[in-house]
Design a protein that fits this description.
This protein has 758 residues and is of the alpha+beta class. α15 (385-411) packs antiparallel against α23 (540-560).
Length: 758
């Protein structure tokens, strides 16, 4: 899934610092290079000419215009609560939005219960009045993208004492001008070398119009996630509502469907191998211009801890879900999100190792340093960049293992967090001047411990499962960085047993001996005078938590200091790489702002002797059916197909001439997290599908793009219409959509000669 999830990814630890541009030195590429995530104001001149050469039939002003409705106004950023989100597009004049089922997943789950399980059964609204609110969903419609690099520079020169954030706020406040319907953001591009201000119109009332059952919208589940071939109907329909006067408003029965200034038309003529297609969406983060030192850190000091930590969290949630259907509904969104992130990082790590990403970037840097050393002025401007990056990541390498393992263990374990209840008692023991643990303190401790045990009992086994995974991670730290207290607490006898055995023994002991769980022991010890305590009571959970807290406190500031070296070096590093490349058509790394990518319908070869074709069909959906999750094809779909076959009818009016109905297709478009729900458009700007995933072999393209392997997976619009209209009878939604006829071909702008720097 290409959903951007900022709730699960700790921005301070996981986000790339600043990384922009793509170099692919040393590649022998058979597939044309379709990398690129372009800001819409960039779609002109040489960039537009490149798109036209690939097959684009639209003029540049169709994408972004100061005076006319343009495609940017048909695309929405779907913000989910305070976290991340995805993309959607207006597909009717009544505010109907096409997006992914997994983008709408939180809303569907929030509206569900064990009795009305819309995730399992689907959501069907017969009328507008029946559409239900998508809780904590907000839409951001990008109406303006303006470069403000020079404006900010002038403000800095005029106000040298002002902080950069204050100057940015000054610009955004002036632009919004107290209009509560607008939000303005200033983002950095090209490692801070450029800044753009993006202005959004905000929609605060979002509702679910139609969502298929998860057996369609999430068909294949975590097993098929990031995999090809796919057979997933990953789509849902939302709708934007506003106050009767057209202004943005919170949910109200008085609100009316929003009328967008631009909406997309649907093309049911289908796609063919080699066709040009494009996506418009909000890719979250890519890291393609980071240094080899950063890549080495990710591969050897970060990725494995993220994988182990997320696997432990998922194991616990899945166990809890298996015991109770209501719990399964409540934690469904978290499980899906964690599973998606886990598989993504597994793919990233595999890609780093399989395709020698660190070594490839090292070759880039050798070329860069040779180029810098050829000119004295370059040496002055860029000479220290690589050295500073190297110093920064030397610091990160020494402390990253401890920070990642410690933070993830403490953050995701309520058991360890609860040891804070015991803090007053251990402070009493450690303070010589206090001879007795006061009754009021004892009563408070025992009360809080009892409250914890009551809450903990609701999913005790699941929490122990998660803790076990994280403790194994601590025991498996490299010997040269593993803290002494880890061995002292988890392996006090210096046993040669496996991590599994040691952790199982530790947990079994804590269940009966920890003051958190042994009520009688806690009551007795907290009543005992200090003079009668023959030795300090050793509570393993408390000691472990204190050790982790100390580890984090000691190492996190040191780890964070590496950012100073990196942030200071990256602008020059990127600027130098850009100059060395001599390419005037350079795109910035993704940062959750609106981008266009162009690609072609193309298969790929994941391994020797294997070639994946570009489409899958409804026949494949039926063939995968096992009647058990995640391959449980709904009975209504099985019956529908069977009746059509029995009568000799074509399964759908949207089927191919040979009777097959396309479900998913592949293309070379450049997307990443946040692109979930992006409309996939043909050369004329008409919707042919909705993007929902990438392939596992290509996910490392977020760091280093490989044209042979990176692919986008799309749900075909014809399958979407079949499910919506023919299977579930949601004709009212289809009636809102405009079916497109191919327009007269527009002559492309003449290609301008590309300038290069020498």
């Amino acid at each position: 899934m290409y959903l951007l999830n900022r709730k699960m990814l700790n921005k301070s630890l996981l986000s790339g610092l600043f990384s922009f541009l793509l170099l692919t030195t040393g590649f022998a590429q058979k597939t044309p290079d379709d990398s690129g995530m372009w800001l819409l104001p960039q779609i002109k001149g040489a960039v537009h000419a490149e798109m036209v050469s690939k097959g684009l039939k639209l003029p540049s002003e169709a994408f972004y215009s100061d005076s006319l409705p343009s495609l940017n106004e048909a695309i929405v950023r779907v913000n989910i609560g305070q976290g991340g989100g995805g993309t959607g597009s207006f597909i009717s004049s009544q505010g109907l939005i096409l997006t992914n089922h997994h983008v709408a997943y939180d809303a569907i789950a929030s509206a569900s219960s064990a009795e009305t399980n819309y995730l399992k059964n689907g959501f069907f609204a017969p009328t507008l009045a029946d559409e239900v609110t998508a809780k904590e969903y907000f839409l951001y419609i990008p109406i303006e993208q303006v470069e403000v690099t020079d404006t900010l520079k002038a403000l800095r020169e005029a106000n040298p004492e002002a902080k950069d954030g204050e100057l940015r706020d000054q610009l955004t406040t002036a632009r919004v001008n107290e209009n509560k319907d607008l939000v303005a953001e200033i983002d950095d591009y090209f490692a801070g070398n450029k800044q753009y201000m993006v202005v959004y119109k905000v929609i605060r009332d979002v509702r679910i119009a139609f969502a298929p059952p998860s057996a369609i919208g999430k068909f294949g589940g975590d097993i098929d996630n990031w995999m090809w071939p796919r057979h997933t109907g990953d789509f849902s329909f939302l709708r934007a509502y506003v106050a009767p006067d057209g202004t943005s408003a919170e949910y109200s029965t008085e609100n009316v469907p929003y009328v967008p200034s631009k909406h997309l038309q649907v093309d049911i003529n289908g796609i063919h191998d080699g066709d040009f297609v494009m996506t418009l969406g909000f890719p979250g983060s890519t890291y393609r211009f980071e240094s080899s030192f950063a890549f080495n850190f990710y591969q050897n000091h970060r990725n494995d801890y993220i994988i182990k930590a997320f696997q432990a969290a998922l194991d616990g949630l899945e166990y809890a879900a298996s015991l109770d259907e209501q719990v399964a509904v409540e934690n469904a969104s978290d499980r899906a999100s964690i599973a998606n992130t886990l598989k993504y990082f597994q793919g990233i790590q595999q890609g780093f190792k399989n395709y020698s990403i660190v070594e490839r970037r090292q070759k880039d840097e050798v070329a860069f340093e040779n180029w810098v050393n050829e000119d004295s002025e370059r040496m002055i401007e860029y000479g220290s960049a690589v050295t500073s990056l190297k110093k920064g990541y030397e610091i990160a390498n020494k402390t990253g293992d401890l920070v990642y393992s410690g933070v993830y263990t403490m953050r995701n374990n309520p058991i360890l967090s609860a040891t804070g209840i015991l803090e007053p008692f251990y402070n009493f023991i450690a303070t010589d001047s206090i001879k007795k643990f006061e009754k009021a303190d004892r009563d408070t401790l025992l009360k809080h411990a009892e409250e914890f045990r009551t809450e903990f009992a609701k999913d005790a086994d699941a929490q122990w499962i998660t803790l076990k995974g994280h403790l194994k991670m601590l025991l498996e730290l490299p010997a040269d960085v593993r803290p002494v207290y880890v061995d002292e607490v988890l392996n006090p006898t210096k046993s040669e047993s496996s991590a599994d055995v040691l952790v199982d023994a530790f947990i079994a002991k804590q269940k009966t001996e920890s003051l958190l769980f042994n009520k009688k022991k806690a009551e007795k010890l907290t009543k005992t005078k200090k003079s009668k305590l023959t030795k300090e009571p050793k509570d393993g959970l408390y000691l472990l938590a204190k050790g982790l807290e100390a580890q984090i406190a000691e190492n996190r500031p040191v780890f964070a200091s590496h950012y100073g070296f990196v942030r200071s070096a990256m602008p020059a590093y990127v600027r130098g790489m850009m100059e060395m490349s001599g390419d005037s058509t350079i795109y910035a790394d993704a940062n959750f702002t609106l981008r266009l990518s162009g690609g072609r319908i193309t298969g790929y070869s994941p391994a020797d002797g294997i070639y994946y074709t570009t489409t899958t069909t409804l026949n494949g959906v039926i063939a995968k059916n096992t009647n058990e999750e995640p391959f449980d094809v709904p009975a209504e779909l099985l019956n529908y197909v069977a009746k059509k076959a029995e009568s000799g009818e074509v399964v759908s009016k949207y089927a191919l001439p040979n009777g097959n109905l396309v479900v998913n297709f592949l293309s070379t478009n450049d997307i990443t997290g946040g692109n979930s729900g992006s409309p996939v458009l043909n050369a004329y700007g008409h919707v042919v599908g909705v993007a929902f995933d990438g392939n596992i072999e290509g996910v490392f393209g977020d760091y280093y793009f490989d044209t042979e392997l990176k692919r986008m997976i799309t749900c075909d619009i014809r399958y979407i219409l079949f499910i919506t209209e023919e299977l579930y009878g949601q004709q009212r939604l289809v009636n809102e959509m405009e079916m497109a006829a191919k327009p007269l071909e527009v002559k492309p702008e003449p290609a301008k000669k590309m300038k290069t720097k020498k």
